[in-house]
Amino acid sequence: MADLSSSASPRHSPQTGVKHDNATQVARPMVFRGGGFAPKSQPLVTAVAILALLAFWQAATILWSISPTFLPSPERVGRSLWRMIETGELWRHLSASLYRIGWGWFLGTVFGVTIGVMIGLFTVARAVGAPLVAALYPVPKIALLPLFILWLGIGEGSKVATIGLSVFFPTVIATYAGVDAVPRNLIRMAQSFNVPLWRIVWSLLLPGALAGMLAGFRISIAAALLVLVAAEMIGAQFGLGAFLILTGNMLQTDKLMAGVVVLSAMGLTASWLVTLIERRVLHWR
Amino acid sequence: MELALTGITHHFGALKVLDNVSITARDGEILALIGPSGCGKSTLLGIAGGLLAPSEGQVELRGTRGPDTLNEITYVFQDFALLPWASVRDNIAFALKHHGLSRQAMDARISNALERTGLSEFLDAYPKQLSGGMKQRVGIARALAVRPAVFLMDEPLSALDAQTRELLQEDILDLWERDRATIVYVTHNFQEAIRLANRVVVLSRRPGRVREVIEVPIPQKDRQRPEHQAQIQGLAERLWSLIRDEARDADRELING
Ligand SMILES: Nc1ncnc2c1ncn2[C@@H]1O[C@H](COP(=O)(O)OP(=O)(O)O)[C@@H](O)[C@H]1O
Ligand SMILES: [Mg+2]
Q1: Do the domain assignments include residue A11?
Q2: Comparing A235 with A160, which gets the higher pLDDT?
Q3: What's the pTM?
Q4: Cβ–Cβ under 8 Å, residues A64 and A70
Q5: Lesser CB count within 10 Å: N end or C end of chain A?
């Protein structure tokens, strides 16, 4: 191989033994061909882009004198958000929503993780549970709200239950996929030291499944927000969903968009919390 | 203690993996198990330690156990089997916690095991911070901490590079020289087998049968000496001639075929 470029005689490829009569002598510098894609996050670029978008929006509403009912300017939206905070109107709706989504998410997660671990552990649980979960997961949970209203009444119970259910399914799936992803050899190791089952679950399966579960939390939070708003739109006096319907019906577009901003902030906060937890508990990765 | 396997036959579904294997690891010896890959070495070791129920045959542990033995038969795994989220200390503690030891007794076992494997300063390190050799030292320390009567080692050094393997072979011998536990040592490396073992069991290709048992009649600590090299060389050639054809055939076989 070393004499490939120095030899002047007809060359034979060392692999194929084929004679290269038309071989050409080359000497060129290596050009950089790429080292894989590596998109980075650039907070400054992000901030500039968002500000530019807002500025364009603001300018557009002024320049083309768009009716504030049709498309309120960011400034108007900001103002009405501030007014809602001052008057306590926002908190009245937000607190109702937080109560429902808090309980719904908590209950859905507790049951989801429990069932998910069981499906990950036991053949019977898997045989019964996995197909049921697969069958019910794609059903939009909001479709079950009327049923829950029938069973639990029009109050908080039916909304919490619907949200809980929408959280339950993705959590079950993320948990048992997480448990499945725990290397079998670690479990064999634990069994070879006679570690009792409860400790295998607590110190091995749960920490091992945690990464998958946290990824599942992001999905379940989004699902919970969706169902929360839908349920409140259908039948609630207070809550962000009710607020959106109300302001929409009264064409208070600025308030409506302020409500959307609050929803987005809720989602972002929740996802930021998940990131914080991930940094704390997954530092070993 | 002595570990006796009698008439072990094992099937995975229709696949016959082991065929009437009988071997006994004598008290205080290193018994190497060697054979082409896929011949059922890991399966046999799983059966020996109660992680797999054989289709036929028995496993029996005989002798008197030490007073501080917590787990009579203990594995050292090829892939180390460390909890990635736990520190070195917690990895060892994981094997001890359910035995109801006092805090001091547990700490004493952990620091003793770490000392013997040269890991004392890595107490708080996480597996991802450790080299392969250090990870396996943790695996060995975890096994030492329960003071087993029998160690089952399934290719413990196969995942390591050649130099590290050399170092750990010495370490394993040093540890063994001190308290002469029984070790069943699976390997596919015949030089490793001759370096470590008192006896080498050669298994045939799948379904694994005992082809031959070869005694290495030189004390482990003398095997590097020049005057034994001719004998060692002879044993190595004999072993290689036994596995060579089997290894070639096994290599050409379809997986699960
Ligand atoms: N759990 C299992 N189910 C089915 N087949 C298996 C299982 N474990 C191992 N085998 C098969 O049994 C044979 C022996 O495997 P193993 O004991 O791991 O061999 P070795 O350790 O000697 O390389 C292989 O052909 C392997 O594919
Ligand atoms: Mg193996």
Answers
A1: no
A2: A160
A3: 0.82
A4: no
A5: N
